[in-house]
Amino acid sequence: MSVMGLFFLFIASGVFFWLAREGVMSSDWLEEGETVGAAKSFRGAGLAPPPAAKVGLAVFLAVALCVFSLLTAAYFMRMDTPDWQNPPLPRILWLNTAFLVASSVLLQWAYLAAACDETARTRALLKLGAATSACFLLGQLWAWRELIDDGYYVASNAANAFFYLLTAIHGLHLVGGLVALARTIDKAWRPVDRAALRSSVELCAIYWHFLLAVWLVMFAMLAGEMNGFGALCRRVLS
């Protein structure tokens, strides 16, 4: 089995273990027509059935991790060619990273506020998290503009193409997260179940933590701080 196959098996095993821990893989859950029995078994164990949204997010994050892992492997393999020339790193990326860190922290605080039923504080933190995330996206577009103005086009070099590809895919994931965050903010201003609001805020916080972790790895790659790790990956993958 290849190294990438083992890596995907590792991710699948992690997801399966998490689902099993949440009780999704229990026999009552899997048997058709036994949803009532499943609910009783969860209550008997002192647990609540895992929310479908949380299970869906876990599966989606596993798929997204595979996608970013493949792109990372392709990046390290391609950078070992003679025509590879890294474009200069726009300085605004440092500010963008600070914005994304701030948004992740703010959403975590929003979850803690929602857990304490502090509605007003939750609303404020959600809005601040959305604002800093929007600033991150605008900063990424600004970084693109800087590179294009300096003549670093997509077709000029493979390194340029990877820069635009990686930042674009990450940005699209963030845009999708902002859609979900907007729905959560709208929910915070409506008379909804507090548990439902707390669950929505928690899912947004988890997703932002994932996006932050992916961006930190990508930023280190683009800055050339992972060249040694890239050499190791090329040796293993080849």
General description of the model:
This protein folds into 2 domains: 1-50, no CATH class; 53-237, Cytochrome c oxidase, subunit III, four-helix bundle (Four Helix Bundle (Hemerythrin (Met), subunit A)). The two termini are 13 Å apart. 79% of the residues lie in helices and 0% in strands. 22% of the residues are buried. Helix 5 (92-115) runs antiparallel to helix 8 (194-222). It is built from 9 helices and no strands. The protein has 238 residues and is an all-alpha fold. It is globular and about 60 Å long.
Q: Helices and strands: which structural class?
A: mainly alpha
Architecture of the largest domain, according to CATH?
A: Up-down Bundle
**CATH superfamily placement of the largest domain:** Cytochrome c oxidase, subunit III, four-helix bundle
Count of strand segments:
0
User: What is the string of SSEs from the N terminus onward?
Assistant: HHHHHHHHH
Report the radius of gyration as a whole number of Å.
Answer: 21 Å
Beta content: under 5%
Domains counted in the coordinates: how many?
2
Shape: globular
Classify the fold: give the CATH topology of the largest domain.
Answer: Four Helix Bundle (Hemerythrin (Met), subunit A)
Head-to-tail CA distance between termini:
13 Å
Question: How many helical elements?
Answer: 9
What does the average pLDDT come to? 82
Which CATH class of the largest domain?
A: Mainly Alpha
Q: Sheet with the most strands?
A: none
Low-confidence stretches: 27-45
How much helix, percentage-wise, in residues? over 70%
